[in-house]
Amino acid sequence: MSNERPTLGIVVPCYNEEAVIRETITQLSGVLKALMEEGLVSRASFLMFVNDGSRDRTWELIAESQKSNPLVSGLKLSGNVGHQNALLAGLMTAKEHADCVISIDADLQDDVKAIREFVIKYSVEGCEIVYGVRQSRKTDTFFKRTTAQGFYRFMERMGVKVTYNHADYRLMSKRALNELERFKEVNLFLRGIVPMIGFKTGIVFYDRLDRFAGESKYPLPKMLAFAFEGITSLSVRPIRLVTMMGFGLSLVSLAAVIYAVASKLLGNTVSGWTSLILSVWFLGGVQLLSLGLIGEYVGKIYKEVKRRPLYIVETLLMPDTLKQAEVE
Ligand code: UDP
Ligand code: MG
After folding, report:
1. Where are the bilayer-spanning segments (predicted)?
2. For residue 220, is pLDDT > 50?
3. Atom of ligand 1 nearest to the CA of 15
């Protein structure tokens, strides 16, 4: 890294966050200002709030504070594209104006104090990717904790490299983001893709806090869908498991055939409506499951070949100083 102070961009995806957004802006501005005063980041550093098609007043609040707070910029997407895509929109826009970018949720669950350590890892130790890892999850429910652990373990079994207890609180250098841009996948699961970039990485531990206000946008069904997306977009091992299951079942049925033929030859008529009906149902179930799984991958391929844009930017509000820098 150069000796000059790096310009830091902090990207915050926001969906229906009117209850917290003001507090988030205040807290992040405080952190950023302190970093500027300490000389850790340049004066051109900024916060970028991405409005992911909120249906409440989130965007109005962002636009309002953008007028009075010179650190704030706002990126308005044309509709709701989901957390991962909104995050990507922010990262790709912010990297054009920054040397490194930190992504953080709008709800202040990720301790903002860690930002300073992220920056130090970047500028002193030269880490191009720094993961924020939750030291404790005391504030998460027992249920969320156990399902999350199960998820990480399952991902690993399925051959996907993930960092335990790391969500999307991380720093990436401009260089790492430029590489991320080359991953052209439509089925985006950033947590699984970022480790593939390589480069020097670091970890910062922090405590996961309670949501400041508002409610989680990830209820259980959405969480499961997210986990499923993550696995199927990064690994084909589930399909291989299905193949192996098919192979196993074929062996079993071969044994059953031998048994049936042998008892026929020995003159015992095969009695067994129960076994028959059970195997019909069982095999039917397994086949439907396998077909569904394969369909899932076909659907993914379908989405990938269409190559639709992941997000559409409607408005970008930036402080004049930054716009100026862009023109020069
Ligand atoms: N979010 C978003 N688009 C969505 C859903 C969520 O941009 O469609 C944002 C949300 O505003 C928050 C972050 O993604 O900043 C994480 O969401 P949330 O806190 O609800 O998830 P949890 O922490 O409960 O997993
Ligand atoms: Mg949250």
Report:
1. 241-261, 273-298
2. yes
3. 11
Q: Which of 44, 37, 33, 39 is CA-nearest to residue 9?
A: 44
Whether the Cβ atoms of residue 30 and residue 67 lie closer than 8 Å to each other: no
Pocket test of ligand 1: the residue of 10, 75, 77, 107 to mutate, having most ligand atoms within 8 Å of its CB, is 107
Substitution site in 12, 14, 15, 17 for ligand 1 pocket (most atoms within 8 Å of beta carbon): 15
Give 52 Cα–ligand 2 centroid separation in angstroms.
Answer: 15
Are the C-beta atoms of residues 166 and 135 closer than 8 Å to each other? Answer: no
216 lines ligand 1 (CB under 6 A): yes
Check if 80 has its Cβ closer than 6 Å to any atom of ligand 1: yes
- The predicted model scores a pTM of 0.81
| Per-residue pLDDT tens digits for 115-142 | 999 999 999 999 999 999 988 777 777 8
**Spatial CA neighbour of 199 closest among 271, 125, 141, 133:** 125
For ligand 1, say whether the CB of 17 is within 6 Å of any of its atoms.
yes
pLDDT higher than 60, residue 328: no
Ligand 2: centre distance to CA 14 (Å):
10
**Separation of 285 CA from ligand 1 center, angstroms?**
35
Ligand 1 within 6 A of CB of 6:
no
Flag whether pLDDT at 206 surpasses 50. yes
Give yes or no for residue 270 having a pLDDT over 70.
no
